[in-house]
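Researcher: Let's do a round of design. I'm pasting the structure tokens now; please hold your answer until I've finished.
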């Protein structure tokens, strides 16, 4: 881990404000408003919380069946 790119380290400073005037900050823009305020209504999290436990249970059943 000694070859860490300095662009990908946390500085501890406050995040950039929401971008309102892209043209004036084109070289170093902040996040767009939808990226910060958008609700995650149809995200993958709601699906994964059902699929992962079912996949684990099926995997355990298959593993116990194949083990004998």
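Researcher: That's everything. Go ahead.
Model: Designed sequence:
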């Amino acid at each position: 881990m000694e070859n860490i790119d300095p662009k990908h380290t946390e500085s501890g400073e406050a995040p950039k404000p929401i971008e309102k005037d892209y043209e004036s900050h084109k070289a170093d823009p902040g996040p767009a408003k939808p990226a910060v305020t958008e609700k995650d209504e149809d995200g993958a999290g709601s699906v994964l919380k059902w699929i992962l436990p079912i996949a684990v249970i099926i995997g355990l059943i298959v593993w116990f069946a194949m083990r004998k």
